[in-house]
Amino acid sequence: MKMIDSHSHLFLEEFLVDLPQVIERARIAGISHILMPNIDSTTIESMLATCDMYKGYCFPMIGLHPTSVGERYEQELNVVIENLNMHSSFIAIGEIGIDLYWDKTYLEQQLVVFERQVQLALEYHLPIVIHCREAFDYIYNVLSKYKNSALTGVFHSFMGTIEEAELIMELGNFMFGINGVITFKKSFLPDTLKTIPLERIILETDSPYLAPVPHRGKRNESAFLKDVLAKVAEVYQLCPEIVAAQTSENVIRMFGIR
What we know:
Radius of gyration: 17 Å
Distance between the termini: 17 Å
């Protein structure tokens, strides 16, 4: 049984000491690909180095994370564009979006950065990976302007309501990234998930964050995707092999990886 971890930050310092062991555990668990979203200019080098070290297994994205948006956002955006022009290995623009959980100071700048990166995705014919935290209406308002365009992407770490899921499905070719949150005791995500076709679901870990039960509170890693898969299979009342195959096919179709 093969699975794809569609969102993992294994290039961060949390994995500095034991990355080879983490990758080996992922392979043993059945992870066939690991997709790696960027954060900002400080993480590009380590992300690319990790993807070079595990070429054909780890795949890089490029983007400016909303929590890294500040006064220097223009310079950060220029770094994204420079890297897009220097490397042809990026499979997506991500992760990008709006985050109002920690700080609302740079909302205006986050909106500008998000829309510019959406335009980059269209220009470079790449999907987007969206970080949305307490900002659904803002993100939906931006994306609705591109409803009839070629824009595709994923709502990473989706935790939304049934109503929000319906709005996303109306936008067009967007997937829902499901991670360890689905296993949390107080999560209402299982109810929302029942309204979404499996053809619109991809699995992720968001390592080192959001470790699923029974690992909650620990450093997350790609091997723990099997626990996310088990819960998603339970929600859809399907065997894990079917869910693994369909979600992997969804990732391959969205990101064009082999």
